[in-house]
Design a protein that fits this description.
Blueprint (H helix, E strand, L loop, with lengths): L1 H34 L5 H27 L11 H8 L24 H9 L13 H12 L7 E8 L5 E5 L11 H13 L6 E6 L5 E5 L18 H14 L4 E7 L44 H15 L3 E2 L3 E2 L7 E7 L3 H11 L2 H14 L6 H14 L23 H11 L9 H4 L22 E8 L2 E9 L5 E9 L4 H17 L4
Length: 518
């Protein structure tokens, strides 16, 4: 208890400090109204109760703002703190998103957000839109008609609580989604595997040949770095393997590696690119050749061979000599000597969405394929995503998947599908999908939205960005002025300036958040 108190006390102190101005403003606003009331004993009691409630709400809002986003179990994702500490660019196909020098405006109390998430039916209703639709059309229509948004546009807004569609313009038009495809990949993977699923990398000993096989389990977060954090560590796997071999008196061994879990081409159709390493069931640090953890970076040409060489080096440091590693396949008789496992799928999904991580996306597409009975390839992953979404009853008309990351320009999604995916993720009957919402970048705070919305809708817009040449998309959630949680998708094709299109989409999302139109 003492340790918990010590850990919580600094954050509560900062939250209380941050809440003081808000409490003062609220008290100042309430005092004139109270002054006109008769001073009977019962009224004074009511005044004290109202004052305490006001101060409590203000303090709660400050605490939520200071603590950052929360997951389905009531625990902080800590993504804001991590993003601020790293000060690195976000999604691989998105440009810079380092920490902004400007301080974002405070987010409102989370009460309305949580109420919205808890009340959804998980489906998009076709019932008549409420009377507020005309006002919403007046607000969004001119913004979405901006020339910066190119020639092809699609938009949809849905009330997550009721499932009612509040706005639609070209919502059923299939357009290039870019990285908003990752929302579909996340929903499909969580549906097929479950949010608690983990991927295991193992070292196995063949009983007949005495060969040690490093077997890839398709863990996209496996790391060879000294500071592993919550990731599975190749160093730990080597240390545990070496200890077991030493106990058996083995000091030299033949080493190989197994990547047969995945099949098909490893190289994405875009070719060699800093946005994505060749996809392999065995890779360490996404094959990055620098110290980065997200965003574009030079990659090794053979991630599996690179990981195996690093593993051999760690074994050497632990007193075990190996032959130069080569490809092989572990048999069913191979004895597992040591294993390491990835973070939960929920954590991987959040990381993928927050940082727009293409490597995680393509690995999860293959894992979804294997869980769905398809081949662990680009084609199998695309088929499996469609299959899983179809099982959920989502509107797939016009949709076409070719990868899991959205880097393939042949991908097609509709604004209607994107909002339906977000509503489904908020369905209380499907808590396993909640990481799709908690992983969305927070405007002005995390991931690919770190330096966006700092002067507008910071904290009240959470959205997945998408950027390819001539394509700009944005899909996520916003809390409007009345506290309603809205799912939105804005898609633009044929854009000529990525920055101008991005700004136009940001203005639209900010207007949605500031509108009491729902």
């Amino acid at each position: 208890m003492r340790r918990i108190a010590n850990a919580v006390r600094p954050r509560l102190a900062r939250a209380a400090t941050a809440a003081k101005p808000r409490i003062a403003r609220l008290t100042k606003a309430v005092r004139p109204e109270l002054a006109h009331l008769p001073r009977r004993r019962t009224d004074r009691t009511w005044q004290y109760t109202a004052g305490a409630a006001t101060a409590g709400l203000a303090l709660a809002a400050a605490v939520v703002t200071a603590a950052g986003p929360w997951d389905a179990n009531g625990q902080r994702t800590a993504e804001r703190d991590r993003a601020t500490a790293l000060e690195r660019s976000g999604g691989a196909d998105h440009g810079g998103s380092g920490t902004s020098p400007r301080t974002p405006q405070a987010a409102p109390s989370a009460a309305a957000v949580l109420a919205g998430l808890g009340g959804t039916t998980g489906t998009v209703s076709t019932k008549k839109t409420p009377t507020g639709r005309q006002a919403l059309t007046d607000v969004l229509g001119p913004l979405l008609d901006a020339p910066a948004l190119g020639s092809g546009r699609g938009a949809a807004v849905v009330d997550v609580t009721t499932g009612t569609r509040l706005y639609a313009a070209g919502a059923d038009q299939a357009l290039i989604p870019a990285s908003t495809t990752k929302i579909a990949t996340a929903v499909a993977a969580l549906s097929a595997l479950g949010s608690d699923h983990r991927f295991t990398t193992r070292a196995a000993l063949e009983p007949d040949t005495g060969e040690l096989v490093l077997t890839g389990g398709g863990d996209p977060a496996l790391t060879a770095r000294r500071d592993a954090g919550d990731r599975a560590s190749l160093r730990t796997l080597a240390a545990d393997t070496a200890a077991t071999l030493a106990k058996r008196g083995i000091r030299r061994i033949t080493l190989s590696y197994d990547t047969t879990l995945f099949s098909g081409p490893a190289l994405h159709p875009i070719g060699v690119n800093d946005n994505l390493a060749p996809v392999s069931a065995l890779t360490a640090d996404e094959g990055r050749t620098d110290d980065s953890t997200s965003g574009p970076a030079p990659r090794v040409t053979d991630p599996a061979a690179d990981a195996a060489r690093k593993f051999a080096g760690f074994l050497h440091d632990a007193g075990i000599e190996t032959t130069p590693p080569g490809p092989s396949k572990a048999t069913s008789r191979a004895e597992t000597l040591a294993t390491v496992s990835s973070p939960t799928l929920a954590t991987l999904v959040e990381r993928m969405l927050t940082n727009s991580d293409n490597d995680i996306a393509e690995t999860l597409a293959r894992q979804t394929a294997l869980a769905s009975g398809e081949a662990g390839s680009f084609t199998g992953g695309a088929e499996a995503i469609s299959t899983q979404l179809r099982k959920l009853g989502l509107p797939l008309s016009g949709a076409s998947f070719h990868d899991g990351s959205g880097l393939d320009r042949d991908d097609r999604l509709t604004a209607n599908l994107l909002t339906a995916l977000l509503v489904k993720a908020g369905d209380p009957a499907r808590p396993g999908l909640r990481p799709v919402l908690t992983g969305l970048p927070v405007a002005g705070f995390t991931g690919t939205l770190t330096d966006r919305y700092t002067g507008g809708a910071a904290g009240v817009v959470r959205a997945k960005t998408g950027t390819l040449t001539g394509v700009n998309t944005l899909a996520g959630t916003a809390v409007d002025r009345d506290g309603h949680l809205l799912a939105f998708a804005f898609m633009a094709s044929g854009t000529t300036s990525a920055q101008e299109a991005q700004s136009a989409l940001d203005r639209t999302a900010t207007a949605l958040a500031g509108c009491g139109c729902g």
